[in-house]
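S.,

Sequence below, as promised.
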Amino acid sequence: MQRIPREQSRKFAFDWHDQPLVRVKPGETFEIETWDASSGYFKTPEDKAVPGKRPGFDRSPPQANPIGGPVFVEGVARGDTLVVRIEQIQVEPYSWVAVGPRRGPLGESTRFPDCSTEYTTKIFKHTPGPSGTTVDGTLHFSDRISWPITPFIGTLGVCPDREVTTSIDGQGDWGGNLDFRDVAPGNTIFLPVYHEGALFYLGDVHASQGDTEFTGTAAETQSTVRLKLDVIKGKKVPFMRIEKPDSIIALDFYRPLEVAVEVATVRLIEWLVADFGFKAVDAYCLVSTCPDFRIHVYQMCKIGKLSYVAGAEIPRKYLGK
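The prediction came back faster than expected:
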């Protein structure tokens, strides 16, 4: 099995000038070993998020959020759709979250000075599950609180059409730093292709995250991701989208958040009309009346140029297919 080792997974941009690290055939399983968002800086609670101490934070934007790639997929061309199937994410023995002055919505709080005047790093231990690995393991937030590890890929995508976009704040229809919690094992992600071979990257795996990634970091971790890439020839999806076994999710990002919510919902309506035989008026009424229609706020952290990320989800049982 082909693999991109961790030492090579330290790119900081979706750059179509990069030479591919691996070439795969459609449907071929391969692996990418990823760094955490800090490239290994946070190891103990004494490692604080002081910008002057963090490698790469003397650059603008900072060299953080490393990604592995590009992966060249044989037979994929501009105008196709890349199909990403995540088979497994195995995280390393710990993850971390870091907060402090001028970081996140409480970074300048006077009401909660311990959030705004001190740098705090929390390290979460991961213990293996029945498989003997962290694939089904547990994250220990504290001696009292724990939950199942629920890993996902925070940053993935293909190279955009003409620009070179950073991995820390780049976002587009092609993917980027979007922190969709549903970019997870068992789900399928669809991406529009702009270059021969697609030129795919991924990184920024989280061991778990709640809605919004409120502090700006979640349970950041290193990992090994096993996946395969396929292609839909001659059809280009208008924007990154996700299919789960029991539902479909249309996506958007924007500031203010209500625009992202509206556009994601309209994209879901368009998808229902184009692929599931709905009349527009029926799809429009469905999203307003169905008790299982959901809006997700995946990312709403105040960091740099990042826009807010929303998803509109509907169960497959209503789709007729």
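The CA atoms of residues 270 and 280 lie 8 Å apart.

Coffee later?
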